[in-house]
From TrEMBL:
Name under which the protein is recorded: DNA polymerase IV
Molecular function terms, GO-annotated: damaged DNA binding; DNA-directed DNA polymerase activity; magnesium ion binding
Positions of the UmuC domain: 7-197
Organism: Nocardioides agri
Cofactor notes: Binds 2 magnesium ions per subunit.
């Protein structure tokens, strides 16, 4: 733990949903749910308007629709989220060289490493100084994102900073002065500690531990006996507000994976193999784009009864060859009983390296895997997905409001326009196309 509160945690509020509301004026102030829109979809993010009806992340879309049927259910637009995230991360890196992104929408910032010449208000890192700076930073985030808000916590450790950023959501700021950390934690549920999930919570409940104050009454040895060596030591330290983890500027990817969820159970084994092959090729492309390779190939299979199976195999040396990854994925599938039906398939590669063994010795790799022509009539991704960016030859840019029975309905508006009109077209109308942001090579300038 540091001598002063100099670790900042920033969390963009309801990020995916907030980006959708920013770019779709007609949805501002209304319930928005981003995630899978099919019967087996899962909520990724819910706007605060939707949360008032009990909609939460990781909830099934089916339940979310039952709780808030009037919400806008959108599939999401990764390009918009990535672009917004990059703007925020660039802003944070202009403050300090030590920025540790946790995801697209949150990051730690080491204020002790900030450029004092550029930010003289951080010279002494006193509570008034970091509070004033954090307010300035939140205003800058709103500016660079086009109106998104962020909740910020500042404390003497990463653990406390993250806890603090959750205390006054949305659009809040909490600074935890040095010396008050344990007083802040004691009334909180033990679930505030990272890694305390349902199983650990139940074990602690059985010995009468519900809050962090209760946890403080157990010795480190007792926690080790109850939860194991690693978890016991971890919980004992954090219950005492002890966390010396540094802010790490680069977080290396541990794996690259692709998966798909299907609206109806898959039973055709040949189709499953073809889907795994396509996923393996996608994984290989992503590995090569990142200049990576991997030794361990894993498949993920979720059965009709929600049982999830993971099977892995490890190579002697890393590879980025799509044919190799696909062959191993199909081999792993062959050992599983999928006769009852499969609702999810995925392929991943871990044990990443920045080299390929075959390249070092000038050996040839396997031939490129030929993509099978796969038709999946019940995959959860649709041609005209709700929320998708589109463009019409006459009406200009808009987004898909809904589609079905050969018709796609579009609302024509963008972040820079007022709420726009709604029009319907045949799904194969040649004047209606998917809009994608221009690449850097295509941008004028």
């Amino acid at each position: 733990m540091r001598a002063v509160a100099s670790v900042l945690h920033l969390d963009l509020d309801a990020f995916f949903a907030a980006v959708e509301q920013r770019d779709k004026p007609s949805l501002r102030g209304k319930p928005v749910v981003v995630g899978g829109v099919g019967g087996r979809g899962v909520v990724s993010t819910a706007s605060y308007e939707a949360r008032r009806y009990g909609v939460r992340s990781a909830m099934s879309t089916r339940e979310a629709r039952a709780r808030c049927p009037h919400a806008a259910f959108l599939t999401g637009r990764f390009h918009a989220y990535r672009d917004t995230s990059e703007r925020v991360m660039a802003l944070l890196r202009s403050v300090s060289p030590l920025v540790e992104p946790l995801s697209l929408d949150e990051a730690f910032v080491d204020l002790a490493a900030a450029d004092r010449a550029t930010y003289p208000q951080l010279a002494d890192l006193s509570v008034p100084s970091v509070t004033a700076f954090a307010e300035h930073l939140r205003a800058r985030v709103e500016e660079v994102t086009g109106g998104l808000t962020a909740s910020v916590g500042v404390a003497s450790s990463k653990f406390l900073a993250k806890v603090a950023s959750d205390l006054d959501k949305p659009d809040g700021l909490v600074v935890v002065p040095r010396g008050t950390e344990r007083d802040l934690l004691r009334p909180m549920s033990v679930t505030v500690i990272p890694g305390v999930g349902p199983a650990t919570t139940e074990r602690l409940r059985r010995v009468g531990v519900h809050t962090v104050a209760d946890l403080e009454t157990l010795s480190e040895d007792e926690l080790v006996r109850l939860l194991g060596n690693a978890n016991g030591h971890w919980l004992h330290q954090l219950a005492q507000a002890q966390d010396d983890r540094p802010v790490v500027a680069e977080r290396e990817a541990k794996s690259v994976s692709v998966e798909g969820t299907y609206d109806h159970d898959l039973t055709d084994r040949v189709l499953m193999e073809q889907l795994l092959t396509r996923q393996a090729v996608d994984v290989a492309r992503r590995l090569r784009k990142a200049g990576l390779s991997g030794r361990t190939v894993t498949i993920k299979v979720r059965l009709h009864d929600f049982t999830t199976l993971n099977r892995s195999t490890t190579l002697a040396s890393p590879t980025d060859a799509p044919a190799t990854i696909a062959r191993l994925a199909r081999t792993l599938l062959a050992d599983l009983d999928t006769s009852g039906g499969v609702r999810l398939l995925g392929v991943g590669v871990s044990g990443l390296a920045d080299w390929v063994q075959e390249d070092l010795f000038g050996e040839t790799t396997e031939d490129e895997e030929e993509l099978p022509d796969v038709e999946v009539p019940h995959h959860s991704r649709r041609a005209w997905a709700p929320g998708m960016d589109v463009e019409h030859a006459e009406m200009g840019r808009g987004w898909v409001w809904g589609s079905g029975r050969g018709v796609v309905t579009v609302r024509f508006e963008t972040a820079e326009t007022p709420a726009g009109p709604v029009r319907s077209y045949a799904e194969d109308d040649p004047d209606l196309t998917v809009w994608r942001p221009p690449t850097p090579e295509e941008e004028p300038g």
